[in-house]
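Margin note from the TA: students keep mixing up input and output lines. Inputs are the sequences; the output is the structure of the whole complex. Example:
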Amino acid sequence: MGDSSPPDAETALAGIDDANVRELRLETAELGTWDTSLLVFLVQAVKRARARSLPVHDDRLPDGVRRLLQLAFAVPPKEGSQRTHTRLPFFASVGTIALSVPKSIRSCLEFIGEVTLSTGRLLAGRADIRGRDVFGAMQECGVQALPIVALTSMLFGLILAFVGAVQLTQFGAQIYVAGLVGIGMLRVMGAIMVGVVMAGRMGASYAALIGTMQVNEEVDALSTFGLSPIDFLVLPRVLALTVMVPLLTLYADFMGVLGGFLVGVFMLGLHPLEYWNATIQMVPFKHVVIGLVYSTVFGMIIALSGCYQGMHCGRSAAAVGTATTAAVVNAIVGIIVATAIITIICNILNI
Amino acid sequence: MSTPSPSPCIEVSDLTIAYGSFVLMHDVAFTINRGDVFIIMGGSGCGKSTLLRVLMGLKSPAAGKVRYGDVDFWGGAEEQRQATMRRAGVLFQGGALWSSMTLAENVGLPLQQYTRLSPEEIREQASLKLALAGLAGFEEYYPSEISGGMRKRAGLARALALDPEILFLDEPSAGLDPVSARLLDDLILELRDTLDKTFVVVTHDLASLFAIGNNSVFLDAATRTMGARGNPTELLHNPDTNPTVLRFLTRGGSDEGKEGGV
């Protein structure tokens, strides 16, 4: 390389493109330890020289470097294997996404249809379902969720009472806090609280569990034994949530009313019996029933959303993560949309 | 090695497999006879496992026929496919044991679904199948508690649960040390000879495929079709064999010789 310090890599590479250069000679002097960054430089240099069809002489490179360099060019890049990342124009990409919507709706409806058929098989007593799985799923989503449901719904009852009290105290109508909390919790909020908690707990868990089974080919293993994955994996979980979410909602209703009761008695200075009587008078039983309708629907939505994402999960760890997120988001969106629909129906029916 | 009067067990004709518009392989045809250890071989990414999924009823072919005896596998209804698959057992690449169940439950589940055996009889059966695979005493272990090689063996025990006529093995020796791989090969031959099973094995383990295979098909990733079919040892010694296949069978040796001593 001569006495002067060698040029930096950029300059040296650019020099190859000089029209006066007739050949590329590679040699090293005072080369100490080297690693693949030297190789990266050499490969770039050789590629540039080849692009101009210059002869390349590498016989004076150290033996190891030369062998690795040859190895780097040994297998020609496979034709057509290079991915070109073409960016679609804005409207084209919006269109592509829009066109994929009917497809995903269709696959979603197909899944619901399969679960319905599977439920039919269950009623006919022909489903590949094990009682143990159903009870296991019920225990997991029911008993083990009691503490968190208690905490959230009691606090929610408390909040509801606080917010209501601020307004109602101005009119000296503190006692109506009992009705506000009672109707609010029993009719809809108890179900929504349980729904959101269960979407986070079970929706995510089902998607991750079934998704991982998909990655490990466990779902395929079921199919090869002629066992229906829908019957075996999805049905027990849909059953469990459809039964347990309403039960949890009753529990949440009670906890919410208890939260309102605490505010009424300790902050607004109402007598415990007074609050209790007001609740019973102002809250007709139909609200409990309506709350149960909401929660049954929520239970199905959460289970279907979690299981759907799990069953349609890709075969990688990243896909399981995506499926889990999608399961929770879809379940919560589904709960809100279902709430709106049922509320409108109740309004029309005047109940 | 070959059975005196070969009777076809699986017949594949004009098979084309595609993902969407991407054709993975075309014009694949071969016959697997009863008692064969049939090898599906080829380089990485040539579609061996996908071909196996088609044979197992997990992926539908774009064109062509798969016949199990008299049954048109993909032409019929799903119920028929499920019934056919009940005659087959599958060992997946990673074992694919159901992770929430013990080994005994893994082996016992198919029995529980398809037989009228009592729970005790199912336990006995499961223990026997596990013992055949060299896992006596591991009944109460969960898949996560045992080694990869043991998971493969347990997968084989589960594949044997319903006493299938045909066993599909997806890369049985991948990830096993040479000794365990050899033991698994011996087990396959043993089962073939004693219980008269037919094996369809996806592998690119040369030592293993020469040791157990008596028939094979080679899938070529470059031409996207069959490179050769027949007994792997005969293919190795036949000078007319397609050069790509020879390169594969001799670990890339440019001229035939190293392995077979030709």
